[in-house]
Write a sequence for this structure.
């Protein structure tokens, strides 16, 4: 409570004080106690519900900071070999990496998956060790399949096993842009949730247009699944791009279920397109403040790092520079949000 909010107390002379007597003093003490209890209610309620816009700095300081892991996906380097992607990400100052999804390798006509859906878990373990040897901790991997796909259950199960063997905390999935099958999603997620937990992994679902194109829709499904092994990944750029919905309003409806982010921005002018964080119209301070004090470890995986209008750089060094810019921008935002 601010000092100015206290009520003024009259200065009592000796005679007035004596006249007040024991009963008066007791009443005064009870009044102060009740006032203190009443003033603590808003703080206790805010603490129960989580971080809120109106919470003052003193309340925020009492909360545990979210341990954000700023990662770069290999996806922005898809036109280059995986090895060049990993070295570029490390040179751009990252300690964390997310696998996704294919890369153009030498002597190969078609894009090559980072790890095939049917690959044994041992293959994922080997690749994860290679990343760590380079100084990069893998934190998330794409599943590469829609939950409603005919082989969705089979592939997602194998991806969870791969992630568990690799020590990767999260496997990402999302629905088709034309819609999804909510009933089938829930049915399959209830099967996959316990499998994910058995392997020490989270299956996270992000927005990708269609019926599951908002955080609100994804959170509703997660709540019905009701298993800690299945949670939400938030993609503000997709929410704004596919459905033209304000992500700053949408995120409020799924904050409790968010465990990671696919970082991309979006802007309407001069061209309607996704872009790197801080280069679009999404206020990342307002976006991330909802999850800045959760006490959790939370990956922020840079999926789109490119500049609006200019397109993808022709050389990998150009991607390196944009990756570094994205990391530095997010670091500044986080430092500002979590400053005491």
């Amino acid at each position: 409570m601010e000092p100015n909010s206290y009520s003024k107390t009259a200065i009592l002379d000796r005679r007035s004080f004596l006249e007040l007597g024991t009963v008066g003093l007791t009443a005064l003490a009870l009044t102060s106690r009740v006032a203190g209890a009443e003033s603590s209610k808003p703080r206790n309620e805010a603490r129960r519900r989580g971080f809120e816009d109106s919470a003052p700095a003193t309340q925020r300081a009492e909360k545990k900071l979210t341990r954000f892991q700023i990662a770069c996906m290999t996806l922005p380097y898809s036109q280059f070999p995986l090895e060049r992607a990993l070295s570029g990400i490390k040179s751009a100052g990252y300690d964390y990496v997310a696998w996704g999804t294919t890369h153009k390798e030498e002597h190969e006509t078609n894009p090559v998956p980072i790890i095939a859906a049917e690959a044994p878990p041992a293959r994922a373990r080997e690749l994860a060790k290679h990343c760590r040897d380079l100084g990069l901790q893998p934190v998330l991997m794409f599943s590469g399949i829609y939950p409603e796909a005919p082989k969705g259950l089979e592939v997602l199960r194998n991806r969870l096993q791969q992630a568990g063997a690799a020590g990767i905390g999260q496997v990402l999935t999302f629905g088709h842009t034309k819609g999804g099958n909510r009933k089938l999603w829930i049915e399959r997620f209830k099967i996959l949730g316990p499998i994910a937990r058995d392997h020490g992994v989270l299956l996270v679902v992000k927005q990708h247009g269609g019926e599951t194109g908002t955080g609100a829709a994804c959170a509703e499904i997660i709540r019905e699944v009701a298993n800690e092994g299945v949670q939400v990944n938030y993609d503000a750029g997709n929410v704004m791009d596919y459905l033209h919905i304000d992500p700053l309003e949408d995120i409020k409806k799924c904050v409790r279920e968010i465990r990671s982010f696919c970082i991309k921005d979006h802007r309407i002018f001069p061209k309607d397109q996704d872009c790197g964080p801080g280069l679009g119209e999404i206020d990342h301070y307002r976006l991330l403040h909802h999850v800045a004090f959760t006490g959790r470890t939370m990956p922020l995986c840079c999926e789109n790092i490119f500049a609006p209008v200019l397109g993808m750089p022709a050389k990998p060094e150009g991607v390196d520079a944009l990756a570094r810019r994205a990391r530095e921008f997010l670091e500044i935002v986080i430092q500002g949000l979590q400053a005491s």
About this structure: The longest strand covers residues 67-73. The longest helix spans residues 14-49. Residues 147 and 183 are 11 Å apart (CA to CA).
